[in-house]
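Q: Could you fold this chain for me?
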Amino acid sequence: MRLLSSQRPLWQPALEGLSAGPPVSDSFWVSLRYFNAYRIVVAGLFFVSVLFYQDLLLLGLEDVRLYAVTSAIYLAIAIGFHVLLRRAPYNFNAQLTAHIIVDVVAITLLSHASGGFRSGLAVMLLVSVAAAGLVSRGTQLLAYAALASIAVLAEQTVQILSDEATLSGYLQPALLSIGYFASAMITSLLAQRVITNERVARQRGIELANQLRISELVIQDVQDGVLVVDANGLVRQHNRRVEALLGRSVPELEQIEGYSRELAEALAAWRAGTGPSQPTLTLDESGRNVRARFVEAGLEGAKLTVIYLEDMSKLEEQARQLKLAALGRLTANIAHEIRNPLASVTHATELLQEENRAPARERLIRIIHDNALRLNRMVHDVLELNRRDRVQADSVRLAAFVSAFVDEFAPAEGLPSGAVNLDLQGDPVIECDRVHLNQILWNLVRNAWRHSTRQPGSVRIVVQRTGGRIELHVVDDGPGVPRDLRPQLFEPFFTTFSAGTGLGLYIARELAAANGATLEYIDRGAGADFRLAWQGDRT
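A: Sure. Below is the predicted structure, expressed as C-alpha cells.
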C-alpha cells in the first residue's frame, strides 16, 4: 500500500506530455473553471426539465429519449471536467477544445431532439464561442466558430433531408453562423486586450513589489528612525532604528502613543497647526534626545505622515569633534590662566622682599598661598581631564557606592552632619570606573553645596530607575542656574565662583561620557538638578 500511495496517477505522465505548450497563468484556469461551472448549471437544467416535465416545455419535443440521454451525458461530462480541472490542470488549449466540442455536440443533439433550429437552443452556442474567446489566449477561436457553424448547418441539413424543413430554412442558421464568427472575432479582440492589460498589471505589480522592497531596505538601513503614521495615529511601518532610539521593541501596527507619549503629543500639535515641524524631544524611557521631523506623504486623500527621528548624539559627536579642535585653544587658555596667578606670586614675592612690616608680610604670604592652591587645583583638574580615556570599568552597586562616598565627602569638605540626604530607590548595578565616578560625584556635590543654602538636607542625592535607565540626581535647594547661563554650564573655564577653575562640570561630563553615561542639567523650577544616567543595569 505504501508503494502504491507514493506513485503518481497513471494519467499524470500522459497529461504532462500534452502540456508542451507555453505556460498558462492561473487566471486562465480560474476562468475555465467558471465557464465549466456555467456548463454544469445549464446541463443540470436540461436534465431536470426532461426529468420532471418531459416534453411539456417543448424541449425534447421530437425525441424525448435522445434529449434525456444527451442531457444526462452532458451533465456527467461537465462534472468530469470539473474534477479534471481541479486535479490535472495541464494543456489548457486541449482541455478548452474538448469543452467546446462537447458543447457543440451536446447542444446540437439537444436542438435536434427538440425540433431543430426553431427550438432556439442553437443560440446557446454563441455563449460557448464567446466564453472560449474570453477564457483563452485568443487562439483557435475561428476554428471553434467554424465547428459551431458546421454543426448548426448540418443539423439543418438533416431536417431538410427528413422533409421537416425547406431550403429557405438555411437563412436563419446561416445568420447565426455569421454571429458565431462575429462573436469569435470580437471576443478575441477583447481577450487580447484583457491579456495585454493583465501582463502590464503583472509587470507593474512586480516593479512595484521591487520598489517597495528597495524602499524597505533603504528605510531599515538609514541611520535615522523612520515611522509612517496614518490619520488615526496608527504606525503602519517603522524601522529598527526606532526601536534602538526607544530602547525597547514595539509590536507592529501599534498606536503612536505606544511608541512615545512625547512624540504623539508633538505630532498632534503639528497636525493641529500649533506645534513646530521639527521639535526636539527627550524620550522618557530611553532618555535619548531626538529631533523629530514631520513630513506629510499621503496621496489622494490618504493622510499619512512620515516621521524622521534624528539622534542628537550625532550632533553631540560632532560637538565632541569640535571640542578636540578646541584643545589647542584650551592649552592657550591654561597657559593664560596659569600666567596670571604666577605673575601675582612673583609680584607678591618681590614686594615681600621689600616689606618689613609683619601685617603686610602676612597679607602677601596669604596671596602667595591662595594662588598656589588655585594653580594646584587647576593642574589637578587638567590631569584628570587627560586621563578620561583610560577607563577601568567595574561592576558598581550604585546605592552602596553613594553611601560610602557621602561618608568620605562630608568630613573631607567640612560639611555639617545631615548636609547631604540620600534617596536610594534600590541598589542597581552599573558598569563604571570607580575613580571616575568618585570624581564626578565629588565635583557635582561640591558644586551643589557651594550654591545651596547650606542647611541640613540642602543637598540631596537620588538613585532611581526610570524606564530602561538608571539615574543619579544631585539636587540642591539653591536658586538654580539662570536660563541665560545654562548653555555655558559645561564649557571649560566657565565659572561664577571667583576661586573656582571652571573645569569641574566640564570634567564631570567628559568622565561620564567616557563611562557610557550622560550628564545634563534638568530644569525643575527651584534649585539645580544634575542628572547622571546609564542605559539599563545588570540586575
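A (continued): The first helix runs from residue 2 to 6.
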